[in-house]
Write a sequence for this structure.
């Protein structure tokens, strides 16, 4: 009567892990979600936190809260440091202690991480936009550079402090560049008018076109929309050096800038290395169409961290819908295995893609058929994001913020909060305390 | 025609500095506000950020934005490190550089800072609640301790991780203790139900009564309301030791707890020491009734950092209304001096005081005459805070959040965001970069 239910451990509470966990609600399995954060991040809007348009809590939601009413789903905050596929255990570290957990089925969904293509020293001076902490760091950084620019007598220095370089012509790069320019043009310009500061936003695309997978019409439109906004777009130039106060391109161009946002280049999460199997390019973990990891029984993996080819031989893109759909499939396939049934292969339903450029421009390629540009595309983008935002409160509040920002450009979120200083002053982390 | 206008430097963008600056809008003076933050903090609601009920941006507002349309008011972010009253200059430090500014009139309004009454080593393990960073540190700390408690097998340790000690029976202590208990009782309890965690909130008042300046009826009501909520109140016990995992009282009682919030004991801002005049007790700077600093011509000071006696010989309390009214008076008296007129003395309009206890309990002493308790007092508190919150957007949003919280107890702000780790990984601060 009280026989043990199979235990599934999900590592990662991103889109893949969350959609898998949802599929397990009230199913005859015990689920443990492990994530290093206590919240899920709605990553498509990270750039809005970075540009002071939204608060962190408007795009992040506590995982415990999502599964509060699901008796079979538990949550633990920690980092997985080891996986033993023979003994079916994983090792987890928290600030407080280390712990070993046993699983019947393991589902890995830890996403991706930036890569600098061998130029790892770029990382030291580059800002990334992958996590909520990243977004807050960018917000602090940009606002601080503007504050510093007001003190600066040297004109060249002053310009460098308000020049923002965004690397990457994909959706993240385009959205970030557009939002940074609007933050300057509609907010900071007016607040710093005593100091006659001007900002420059440069989007560097290393290839020859923006939004590579999109049709030409949308790509050209994206470029035109970005330029009409005020963003300078530079193509076909790779980066040879990044320092705290300048960027140098391969053709010798030197851009004085204190702010470089790295919105290009991702590789699979390093967690995949713990499985000790050969990885595909970009560190992606090869999986079967069932989302089972090749040669690692009872281990499943989904989303950005995985490598799976579609019927044309191309790998599925590292995008959220793939992660979500693979998450659901992995959960259903684990349930099938438990019931002695055959798993189903992955069948991607591609609903298209879209990218927004500022607050009323966008490009959208719906079902990879209908092409929208400008305001109509922006409305489609807005609708999609409102529909998919997790948690009712967040949705309402983000909507209110958007409407408010739309009509007023007010951005009261532009606070420079330096938690580093705070942490230095006291031993607020458990780790430090415990070692005293 | 273009003769130089007198220059006023205001140090501190708290309630005193802000109300002074507002008084100077469009007056024939050039004003420079210097603050180490780029925002004003609505400190009465800090405890709501600390207990995950409000977002930082809902109680903080960028100073530049407040004075965006005021041509004669400028803002600089930095820390004052020296004051030269002979040469009438101040020295300011930022991340980027150091700078000397000249003034005709100087107005100091940097408030107060916690004191441990000689036990400065308590500070290492105590959490404070004076700044937005403090509030976020408390939020991270409490939520992390709960997460850690879920891993802890030892019952005594588990209890210590979810025991929160608040020191101080004044309004901040009472509001914090009440809010922490509600955070547990209405939110965390349900989210951690798998782990059967229970929380204990202990309010330590070193004296024999809560809310010292209030009439007995309100004090007794506050105690009863706190206890009915679930908070344990301990009187008449001073603290002999604070460590990361316990607090010991003078009578030998040992309270195992990983969380101590220091909500008692403040002294005047250390900036006062730069003036090199004898200070009153608690490091408070003696001023004339005109708010001019004694023996320091053309230097004014207002609010918590100052010492001024009322007609009965008692010093004015370190409360926001005193700071606000002194700020306005200081500004008017500077204008009077410029026009060769005599300054006016300070005349305090005391509108009473109030403290809230959880989400529908409070005590209020309006005009020091009308005594309200319970729900009615809470409504008065709510009305007052909504009326006085700066910035329309904030007011609307805080109100929406409050209504939402009131009916649902939803608290999606309970995110653990560790900016320390972020900062360690990269050289995101200008200082570090500049030194490489």
């Amino acid at each position: 009567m009280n026989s043990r239910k199979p235990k599934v451990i999900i590592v990662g509470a991103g889109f893949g892990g969350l959609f898998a966990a949802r599929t397990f609600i009230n199913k005859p399995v015990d689920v443990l979600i492990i994530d290093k954060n206590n919240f899920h991040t709605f990553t498509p809007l990270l750039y809005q936190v970075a540009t002071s348009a939204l608060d962190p809590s408007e795009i992040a939601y506590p995982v415990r809260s999502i599964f509060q009413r699901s008796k079979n789903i538990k949550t633990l905050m920690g980092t997985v440091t080891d996986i033993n596929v023979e003994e079916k255990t994983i090792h987890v570290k928290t600030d407080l202690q280390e712990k070993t957990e046993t699983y019947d089925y393991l589902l890995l969904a830890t996403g991706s991480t930036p890569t600098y293509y061998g130029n790892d020293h770029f990382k030291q001076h580059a800002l990334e936009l992958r996590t909520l902490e990243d977004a807050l760091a960018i917000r602090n950084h940009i606002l601080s550079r503007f504050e510093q620019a007001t003190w600066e007598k040297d004109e060249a220095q002053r310009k460098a402090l308000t020049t923002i370089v965004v690397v990457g012509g994909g959706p993240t790069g385009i959205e970030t560049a557009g939002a940074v320019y609007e933050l300057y043009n509609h907010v900071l310009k007016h607040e710093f008018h005593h100091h006659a500061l001007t900002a420059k936003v440069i989007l560097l695309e290393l290839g020859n076109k923006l939004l590579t997978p999109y049709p030409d019409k949308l790509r050209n439109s994206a470029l035109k929309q970005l330029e009409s906004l005020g963003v300078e777009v530079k193509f076909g130039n790779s980066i040879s050096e990044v320092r705290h106060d300048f960027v140098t391109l391969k053709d010798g161009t030197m851009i004085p800038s204190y702010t470089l946002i790295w919105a290009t280049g991702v590789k699979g999460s390093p967690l995949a290395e713990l499985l000790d199997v050969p990885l595909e390019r970009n560190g992606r973990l090869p999986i079967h169409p069932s989302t089972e990891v090749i040669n690692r029984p009872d281990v499943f993996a989904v989303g950005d961290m995985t490598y799976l080819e579609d019927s044309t031989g191309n790998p599925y893109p590292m995008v959220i819908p793939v992660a979500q759909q693979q998450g659901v499939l992995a959960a259903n396939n684990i349930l099938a295995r438990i019931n002695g049934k055959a798993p189903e292969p992955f069948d991607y339903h591609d609903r298209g893609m879209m990218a927004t450029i500022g607050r009323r421009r966008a490009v959208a390629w719906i079902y990879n058929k209908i092409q929208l540009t400008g305001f109509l595309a922006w409305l489609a983008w807005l609708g999609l994001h409102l529909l998919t935002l997790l948690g009712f409160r967040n949705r309402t509040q983000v909507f209110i913020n958007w409407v408010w920002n739309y009509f007023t450009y007010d951005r009261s979120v532009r606070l420079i909060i330096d938690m580093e200083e705070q942490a230095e002053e006291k031993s607020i982390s458990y780790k430090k305390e415990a070692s005293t």
